[in-house]
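Session log. Operator J.P. requested a structure for one protein chain; no other inputs attached. Running the standard single-chain path with token output.
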Amino acid sequence: MRGPIKRRLVQSDHPLSPWRLSTAPMMDWTDRHCRYFHRLLSRHTRLYTEMVTTGALLHGDVPRHLDFNAEEHPVALQLGGSEPADLAACAKHGERWGYDEINLNCGCPSERVQRGAFGACLMAEPELVAEGVKAMVDAVSIPVTVKHRIGIDKAESYPFVRDFVGTVAAAGCTVFLVHARNAWLKGLSPKENREVPPLRYELVHRLKHDFPALTIVLNGGITTSEQIEEQLRHVDGVMLGREAYHHPWTMASWDACFFGAAPHERERSEIEARMVEYMERERALRGEPWSHVSRHMLGLWNGTPGARKWRQVWSDHRLKGESPAAVSAMARRSARQADAVFAG
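Structure written below.
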């Protein structure tokens, strides 16, 4: 799409929360190509953009940051920023372009984000977050949500996150996406911040107990359907990040397992074929190299014979002059040959 569009209302055939299952916003990963791929695997899972800073939208190339495929709905725009007026202006951009939700990043611990005075460090300023949320709620008619941690640095205090949620909720936010780890603002890389601070699911459960009218979504460390099912006994939704990205076929069971919808009927080969069609379309419309798209589907055949050979072909940039259909044929042939050798 090019330019703002009218938002498509997604009709739900189930009474469950729209946030029951979602994929996490991940920088350099959850671009529109990734989200198109994920939507082929699940009709109901909520998808999130990479974080887009208010400065990038107010002073940069708006179409480049906000363009997305109509097939991605329901899709949320995540913003990074702290100035209420800027957040309101960018939320309006998001609504005009057709997003279903505006999400404020209060969870990213990277030093680059901290230098911009947003991300996880905003948890120390709940009143400022509340002002930003109120400005956005007043500016748009779509949901305004907040993604945050359970705390910052090594202080493990439930009252800290409880009071943060209470203050921000009073400003009009009713949906909180909670990464169940603290964010250590110094001494850990973003990767380490996803692994080193301990997971404390019980704090997220307490938030739901203390704020029953709010939608509380748990994020962090969830890798299996059994774990999703267990957490849904305590909270309204579960968000998965890298697990869904690296093992995307797990998403194919989500609609039937967690939304009571019809089972997913596409085979992996059909998903690959649809992605090849999409790559051809993107190349024709925008001149997009197929490798910009294919990198997101490298986990499609994980766990099956020949998957490594299949990935190697799609990752071979010496083939960039070939058509996506030709590369797909080579990848499938390489996978079958590897499977035959293994079976023999």
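Operator note: The radius of gyration is 20 Å.
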